[in-house]
Amino acid sequence: MKRSLGLLSLLTLVAALFAVVGTAGASREIKSPVKGSFKYCDNPTFPPMESKTTSGKLVGFDIDMANAIAKHWKVKPKFVFSSFGGLLPALGAKRCDVVISGIFITPDRVKQYPAVPYMRTHRVLIVKAGNPKGIHGPSDLSGKNVAVQSNTKYEEYLKALNEQFKSSGKDPMNLQSYPGDEDAVAQILLGRSDAVLTQDTAAGSYKKKNPGKLATPYLFPETDTFGIYYRKSDKKLGAGLKTAIKTLKKNGTFKRLAAKYQLPPTDVK
Amino acid sequence: MLATFDTHIFWEALSSNPYWKGALLAFELTVASLAAACAIGFFLALGRSSRNGAIRGVVFFYNWIFRATPTLLQLIFIWYALPQLWPTFASNWFTPFLAAFIALSLNEAAYMSEIIRAGLLAVDPGQELAGRALGMSRPRILWRIVIPQAVRIVIPPTGNEFITLLKLTSLASVISLHELLTASQERATASFRYPEAYAAALVYYLGIVSILMVLQAQLERRFTWSSAGRRRRRVAAPAVPAISHDAR
Predict the structure, then answer these.
(1) pTM of the model
(2) Both A142 and A170 in a single domain?
């Protein structure tokens, strides 16, 4: 009895497999714009978009998305490590096909490399739990120790803010820039810094990882867009990325990934 | 053909304030660390040839720790681990510069101690004997006889160490020290002009090392007293009458 049940389930499995292959064959019009493997440059220091587990495994929304795109194109995904500042140079040097690394689409970057948007988010200030320094907005950062990831738009913004502080006679911040976003947040946990400017996505993940130690007292009203950057010369790849993102949004992959990483589903609509 | 190298952007980077400040910071950090390393290294070198076994053991242990571990690790340890052990290291007085200075000078002291030890050993033991025969005290022998002769041997490898140390300062970018490499990375990512931004940083490093090489050559000349050196100099400057040397 047990045996026949096993046989039966095996038969259904085979049948199901055939059905899957059949449908895949039917809609098989997708041609991969990349040959062999889908190489993406990434700086895995920005959870939940991308990070490494303690055992060194890559995890995150971007990693899963890159895998999903590669699967969609039926090629192998290949992760290429880079520092954050080195992402676009690596793309320019053809070390990878695209940059997927929780990176904003900004006018000055788009001038050099085109990008396909896939997610909207907000910037946020992280402080120590209980907000001992009473930071409720950017203007409260005057005279405080602020840590940030280097070569990011966050750093650029904070530097401009510091100029504003100086010109209006307020105390400037003591701004410290680190190679990784996680390094910057570590400064709050070490007690060295009072605040970090980063993304709501990342902040959620830091709070989960360090329960009861961090707080996010301020959410910036402006929306940022994460995008996949590619080279200007790769027009076919750009078009392919656009349709791939559209498909993954339509077939529910993005919604599932957003739920997996506890991101608001409206961000990936 | 360097069709894409924009000399205008290059000059702009080269003359920009952040580069100048970054280079100055790298230079200051190098000089301060090397000076501290020479001082610590000198006592380590003396300790290494001490008659006391415990002192020799401590020096051996120190050199072992600081030479067997990566400088970057030492830097990160001082910046990240110390505040968790002693919260005072999270305060504002513990600046990235101070942390880098401590890490680099402790690290460099281990290397300098070996260089200085080699210098001290190279001085003929007869020199010390002669000093004792004249009734000089041990510190006086060290100061007036051994060190002046050892310095001459120590200068060339110390020049090497200076150059290495200058390049090691770029590691401090990971502990948020705003030095020359950080300045060039910033400019590169802001302008997307990588060849020009990094070439300008190369020029600064080359410039600092060139200045050092000139200084080193002068120092070496100052501490040269052997007859071989004199003869070479006389060939280089025949206008100086030979008598002036013998008369001194």
Answers:
(1) 0.76
(2) yes
Provide the residue range defining the domain that includes A248: 32-121+225-268
Q: Please indicate, yes or no, whether residues A44 and A162 belong to a single structural domain of this protein.
A: no
Say whether A176 and B176 touch across the interface (CB within 8 A).
yes
pLDDT digits (tens, 9 = 90+) for B180-236: 998 998 888 777 788 899 999 999 999 999 999 999 999 888 887 655 545 454 444
**Secondary structure (3-state) at A165:** helix
Residue A132 lies in a domain: yes
Which is it for the CA torsion A100, A101, A104, A109, positive or negative?
negative
**Total count of domains within chain B:** 1
* Pairs across A and B, CB distance < 8 A: 44
Residue A116 sits in the same domain as residue A229: yes
Given CB atoms, is B17 within the 8 Å cutoff of chain A? no
A237/A186 same-domain check = no
Please give the residue range of the domain that contains residue B108. Answer: 20-180
Q: B176, A190: Cβ pair inside 8 Å?
A: no
**A238 pLDDT exceeds 80?**
yes
Q: Is B192 in the A-facing interface, judged by CB distances under 8 Å? A: yes
CB count within 10 Å of CB A243 equals 13
- Asked whether residue A160 falls in the same domain as residue A37, the answer is no
Contact check, Cβ <8 Å, A176/B96: yes
Token duo for residue A124: 């946020």
113-172 of A, contacting B, C-beta below 8 A: 145, 147, 150-151, 156
Q: For residue A258, is pLDDT > 60?
A: yes
A86, A87, A89, A93: CA torsion to nearest 10: 120
Say if B176 is an interface residue toward chain A (CB within 8 Å). yes
Q: What is the CATH number of the domain that holds A96?
A: 3.40.190.10
Could you tell me which residues come within 8 angstroms of residue A216 by beta carbon, excluding any fewer than 6 positions away?
Answer: A124, A125, A126, A127, A200, A203, A207
